[in-house]
Amino acid sequence: MFTKEDGSGLHPAWVTEEFERIAFEIGLPPIRLHDLRHGAATLALAAGVDMKTVSAMLRHSSQAITSDTYTSVLPEVAHSAAEKIAAIVPRSVSRTAGLPTGSPCRLLEGDSTGPGAGQACAAESRRGESNP
Fold it and tell me: One Pfam annotation, family name (predicted)?
């Protein structure tokens, strides 16, 4: 909401026209005043601000509205979320697992059981033996 110095409201059409005039005068590309709201929300989410805060900032009635509106716009937010999730997944330490001494194979800890475990490594060893 925009107001005059005395606190009375400005007509939205006047604010829009003034914004467009000023933007044109300073050489900005054509942009609607309302687009600034979307831009602010998009930048906030891209910066990692949580959805609840952005939703409150926009005065949406629910986080679902904010999420539905902005997460589809931001593939980098989804990418960032995937990276954060991947960062907390425990990683195994590489080691030789019950292989003959001198074997060129390395297995990840936990990969020594289950169907086919170690088969690719055994095949790799055989290739190594047949290639001098």
Answer: Phage_integrase
Does residue 106 sit in the same domain as residue 123?
A: yes
Q: What is the pLDDT of residue 87?
A: 87
Q: Provide the phi-psi class of 93: left if phi over 0, else alpha when psi is between -120 and 50, else beta.
A: beta
Show the domain range for 100.
94-130
Query: pLDDT per residue over 117-132, tens digit each?
Result: 444 454 444 444 444 4
Q: Would you say residue 65 lies in a domain?
A: yes
Whether 36 and 79 map to the same domain: the answer is: yes
Q: How confident is the model at residue 105 (pLDDT cuts 50, 70, 90)?
A: low
